[in-house]
Amino acid sequence: MPRPVWSGAISFGLVTIPIKVLSATENHSISFHQYHLEDMSRVRTRKVCEIDGKQLTSAEIGKGYEVSKDTIVAVTDAELDEMPLPTAKAIEIAAFVPYESVDPVRMGEGYYLQADGQVAAKPYTLLRKALERNSKAAVAKFAWHGRERLGLLRVQGGVILLHAMKWDDEVRDPQQLAPKAVDVSDEEIDRAVLLIDSMTADGIDGQDWATDRYTEALEQLIRAKAGGKKPPAQDEEETPAGGQVLDLMAALQESVSKAQAARGESGGSGEDATVHEMPKKRAAKKTTGKKTASKKSTAKKTTAGRKTAKTTPKKRGA
């Protein structure tokens, strides 16, 4: 497990639970350095004073807030640590809410909360079991890195998980981004629902599509170039041509067929059509077949008539 990033306590009424905070996620992305293309020497970022041009160390750099163009207020780390915040060393639970009532757009990074010591084990377990039994999440306040934050506590895998959250005024109003009102038929909605049903999975874990293919391809590229080989060619997926206007119903139907084929299901079944009130395809196929057969029969008669008409003039000429 990673090293704790913070330590303090959960404040739950009159109960105090000492905890350690550990990051719940880890970054597997490949990082690059910057190099000078001419000689491949390393390019580094250096912190230099803009007045005397001197390169500075971390000990020589402090924080400041620019009040005006010529006025900067310096703020030290000690002053930030001494601010009268009750949440400076505690995750203070303010209320309990249904988990589904929390908008996911407000949720940020996740952190595991670990009971700090044997004394904390019992109250930690008590809070975890209480959250599990009533299916609630705890909304809390805590202070990290010089600012107070809003957080959400929930249970996952027998451990209490803390999500950093956005304040109300940090979430933008989406109304201005909503498209103008358009007419959508019930048939189109039913077809879209059928597509959703055909693409529904039990979860994300273990799914083939839940794989970082970009990082895999990047690793192959680096290994190939490091070994003096040509990078492997990547398979190109078929994509619609740019600017192509597609029939919505046809696109939905084709998407459903592809999704069902990928899951090993047969598309266009009568049961699906009945459940989702879709147009009956079987009747259309039968009618089409009769028309086709009728057309073939008519074509044969017409051909025979043409042959007879060609033969008759020859006899008259004879």
Outline the structure in words.
The protein is α+β, with helices and mostly antiparallel strands and 318 residues long. 33% of the residues lie in helices and 22% in strands. It has helices at 77-81, 121-134, 186-198, 213-226, 248-262, 270-275, 281-317, and strands spanning 6-12, 15-23, 63-68, 71-75, 90-98, 107-115, 136-144, 147-156, 159-165. The model is unreliable at 268-318 (pLDDT under 50).
Give the arrangement of secondary structure elements.
Layout: E1 6-12, E2 15-23, E3 63-68, E4 71-75, H1 77-81, E5 90-98, E6 107-115, H2 121-134, E7 136-144, E8 147-156, E9 159-165, H3 186-198, H4 213-226, H5 248-262, H6 270-275, H7 281-317
Features:
318 residues; alpha+beta; seven-stranded mixed β-barrel; 7 helices; 22% strand; disordered C terminus
Task: Give the structural class.
Answer: alpha+beta
Largest pleated sheet: 7 strands, mixed, barrel
- In the sheet with the most strands, the strands line up as 1-2-6-9-8-7-5
In round numbers, the mean pLDDT is 78
The poorly predicted ranges are 268-318
Give a quick rundown of the structure:
This protein has 318 residues and is of the alpha+beta class.
